[in-house]
Amino acid sequence: MLRRFSGFLFAIVAALAFASPARAQVFTGRIDVSVSDDSGARLPGVAVEVDGPETHTQISDATGQAHFVNLAVGTYTVKLTLAGFAPYTSKTVLVETGSSTEVDGRLKVGSAAETVDVVAVTPIVDLRRDAITTNITVDEIQNVPNARDPWALLPTVPSVYVDRVNVGGSEMARQANYNAKGAQSTDNAWTLDGVPITDAGDTLVRPALAAGASPFYYDVDTLQEMAVRTGGADGQSPTAGVQVNMVLRQGENFPHGSARYYFGGDRFQGDNLTPALALSLGTAGAGGGNRTDSFHDFGFDLGGPLLKDRVWIWGAIGRVHSDLLALDGSPDDSELGTRAIKAEALWHPSVRVNGAYYYNEKLEDGRDAGPARPRETTWQQSGPSRYIKGEGNFAKRSLFASIRGAFVDAGFVLLPTVPFRDYYIDDGGVAHNSYFQHQTHRPQHYFGGDGSYFHGVHEVRFGGGWRSTTADTQREWPASQLVASWAGYPNMLVQVARDYDSFTIGHYIDAFATDTVSLDRLTLTGGVRFDRQTSSLGPAVVNAVPGFATVLPAMASTPIDNVFTWTNVTPRLSAAFAVDESRKTVVRGSYAMFASQLPGALAAFVSPIQYSYAYYNAVDRNGDGAAQQSEVLVNQGLQGYSGFDPANPSRPTSINQVGTSVKAPITNEFAVGIDRELAAAIGVSATFTYRRIEDLLWTPLIGVTQANYVRTGTLTGTAAEVGSYSVPLYALPASAVPPGGGMMMTNRPGYHQKFMGFEIAATKRLSQRWNGRVAVSSNDWREYFDDPQAAILDPTPAPASSTSRPFAGPQVNGGPVVRQIAGTGTSAVYMVAPSYQFAANAAYAARWGIDVAASVTARQGYAEPFFQSDVATGDPLGPKTVMIVQHADDFRLPSVTTIDLRVGKTFKFGFAKAAADFDIFNLLNSGTVLSRQYDVRLTGLTGFGQTLEIMNPRIARIGVRFTF
Questions:
Q1: Phi then psi for 127, rounded to 5 degrees?
Q2: Where residue 56 sits, what CATH number does that domain have?
Q3: Which pTM was predicted?
């Protein structure tokens, strides 16, 4: 009995694990073939062959259908043969990531000539589609002028907006921050060839917020396609965030390869500093604006059969040098290196295996350079990331399945550019000397699979996976670990900073099952998804701060299992109806519930080791600008603190707590839309999306409510643009402050967010010598305080939440949701969903090998939530940053528009092609302001109202490509 039970259990596990994607598989596509005769009767027993990047053969079933799932992205030929009928061939059948391409073949009886259909089959109008996906194809990546960076392509996707502008590769060594459709940034997700690789580590400022980032920088010449999902009811989509699916190239039966070299630099660059702007910037604009000093991008790839029809291999090597100059002329030089290899073998007619290796390393000298971070304060970054994957695919008549496992080894190190010297910030907000050292190691392990089973009008999809993520992070502060902020020099406010150490582990288990019922022109899909996510704390140790050991002593954290455990079962429903018999017009609707992604490092919240600071007054007596221990006015007592309990500095437990019933934030999404095929290879889609986001996490002070705060004064003043302002100030009495200012992580009561957006997308597949894509969106993301007394802690308004006050913000009922971005190569940016966003591109192959292409992007400018920092309110936890405008988006920077152009020449040599490209980015040489100083307290060349970042000027890039 035990043996039978074990066999049964193994069969269940194998069926789940070997489940290969069908259309649910996010890095492959499928072809669904229907065969009939001249009368329209379905024909069973027809030999169906698909040939392209892969070759497969099936026999049509009793309903005259054959399903080819788990196909590599690319272009295929479908051929139908049956004795007594003339053959039928359909060429240029396009397969895209996550899409279903339908081929309806009709066989003619007798000796009639073969029927050949050479018109591209577009999957834009797809009755089975239950996800809102934008496919960025290899044709677009290669033939349209772009920055050759995945994050620069994201703004071309409807509703996705980013925190920077990438002009000709100026930002390709930096990952952009991005949002879409009201989803939290921690709900963004990345997959590489079907394997989830989303970073679950910590950021430089707040633990866990790197969740949603990618552990890799990508060489776009290693990609066959980039597919971006922003919503829909697919059971395999884990969260409401942006799902970015990177699809690697692979070997095929025909040898193929490419080589490229692109170069540009300052001698190919214009000047977009107006005389007035140059005068206002002074020495802050000594570099002549944000500029590209030099750019070189080179590499090659090669693929083909090791054994025709049996074994294939592909590999690539690439390197990018990007040297930038910040607004003040400070250099920021980066180098990205990539190596990749992918092999596939046909083990058996119904069994395929493949493996992949992806290596990427970033080296940067001068990270975060800018007017407020001159060269001496920048970092040198290094750190390789590796990806190793193995996969097996199984196909037998009605069952298609796969299993895959992977290991990701990621992390990076930040070292100060100059030797450790005490860091300080002057009255103009400009930093000096060396910043902290930071290092993190983030390995991941994954095992999972998914599959499809066909029966009549039903297609049952199922799958599951297990994933483990680790984040091991350390930070060391420079010299005496004293960070001084001038407060009317020589007076200073000194931050005594303790080093940091954290070790966390995240575990994820998921499963899904859906049933799609195809009823002629109506398709219905219903399903459910299960997720269990945990975050645990591991051991860590930090040393005491020399000279301040009684306040910030050595600390250690002991392991705690499952600090957070989120278990969710979420439904997914969708319906699509073809309005006409030709199925060229489809209306669709869907409902989906999404549970948020648990950051794997979130358990660090309850570690005794926090990012800990003690604040004292000081006077710079020796005139070096920094603070020494002898200059700290300890006798005046603490002026503020964060991350520890001054009454019990050595307490072995955390000052923070986790609520007893913390659960995952939930997003409910409703979407309706229409798809229309206008002509062969041309389609347009329109979608309206409504989302309600509830149970969001927040961290109020333990045992404190809004009723504990008392009004202590009013902040008044007058500022340029803002005019006069009067803002009430509140403080927490010392008697109400919890030990150490400890916080409670829980779900925010009486609070929710709403998103409403409309988008239109049009796509022209490559045919008749041209291709193009247009995306237009309107977005509105707002927060609502249903119970202000419960949902607002400190009534003092702030431009956004901060490290010391994560419960703060504008706190306006019905106001926009604001996300503050700092670092990662850009000055402070406040992201608010743009009310409009537009992107379009097109490429045309003219006569005599002349190629012409262009792209245009435009969006509303960033918000300007003017504020005053270091406002004393009498709060024992320290000074505050106070917003001095009513709404965060009352003022906005100018709208951003970029126009890029390409002119090239292609030379053909048999099967080979050589192309010379001349690209111009920021054709109009716009000098649009991207960031300003919004703090009215600061003065000088980087003080209030001063420009901190502008768009890079017009620049040309020359490229040479060879393909065969």
A1: -65, -25
A2: 2.60.40.1120
A3: 0.89
